[in-house]
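lol ok so funny story. i was supposed to be doing the assay writeup but got distracted and ended up predicting the structure for this chain instead. priorities right. anyway since i did it might as well share w the group, maybe its usefull for someone
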Amino acid sequence: METKTLNVPDISCGHCVATIKRELSPMAGVQKVDGDPGRKQVTVTVSSPEVWPKVEKALDEIGYPATGF
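and the output, tada:
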């Protein structure tokens, strides 16, 4: 497993974090998703490095592009 904390500048509240969790959690290979709206960060744990591009694409598609991959 691999965990990264990603910077997501467009997070403004808990609802943003909830949306990100709802979209990423069901993805194959995503183990855990946590967010901190105050820091504008999301921490994601995946089963293997091959999952990161899918996470990045999903965040872009839902309007929450991230850095830190």
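The mean pLDDT is 97. Residues 31 and 46 are 5 Å apart (CA to CA).
back to the writeup now i swear
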